[in-house]
Design brief:
Elements: H1 10-19, H2 23-44, E1 59-69, E2 72-81, H3 99-110, H4 115-124, H5 132-149, E3 155-158, E4 169-172
Antiparallel strand pairs: 1-2, 3-4
């Protein structure tokens, strides 16, 4: 759906984006917000402030939502719907980051990077902050997938103690 009421020319928009500190990030933010507006209009079967008989619901303002991308953290103005709620199609439920960023965090975890160092890694990628609990939640799915695939039988492990010369046998599952 094209914006018929848009009076801003393409050149003016580009000049505005170029003047920003991070032009690519501001273009991404603009694009995401336009996608959300279009999606809400389609869901409600009416444009903003339009009255018609086919309308499926009403808007209820906006809320700010943090969205972490490979290009850095952006804050989106997400439209609110009075009944039923709205989550943009490009944002997974209860996740603030895109899938590619999740893959980077999981790959770092697989390679043995600690959760504290992952926070530093994400800061270098332009993400404001990620808590240890968020890293653990991201890698939880990964752990479940790995341990479901690998079935390790219970076995006895012999651990030598060279000082005493004794070799105790420990039983357990690993």
């Amino acid at each position: 759906m094209a914006y018929q009421n848009s009076t801003v020319s393409f050149e003016k928009m580009l000049l505005k984006f170029i003047a920003d500190e991070d032009p690519m990030q501001s273009m991404l933010k603009w694009l995401c917000e336009r996608l959300m507006e279009t999606e809400v209009e389609n869901k409600l079967c009416a444009e903003k402030s339009e009255r018609n008989n086919e309308r499926q619901g009403y808007r209820s303002g906006y809320r700010v939502r943090r969205f972490d991308t490979r290009m850095g953290t952006i804050y989106l103005m997400v439209p609110k719907i009075r009944n039923g709620g709205y989550i943009p199609f490009f944002v997974e439920t209860k996740r603030r980051s895109e899938a590619a960023l999740m893959n980077v965090i999981q790959e770092a975890y697989i390679n043995g990077v600690s959760t504290r160092k992952i926070d530093k890694l994400t800061k270098t990628l332009g993400i404001e902050s990620i808590s240890r609990s968020q890293v653990s939640a991201i890698t939880k799915d990964l752990n479940q997938h790995v341990f479901c695939q690998v079935k390790i039988p219970k076995m006895s492990v012999i651990i030598p103690f060279f000082r005493t010369g004794k070799f105790p046998v420990l039983s357990g599952s690993f």
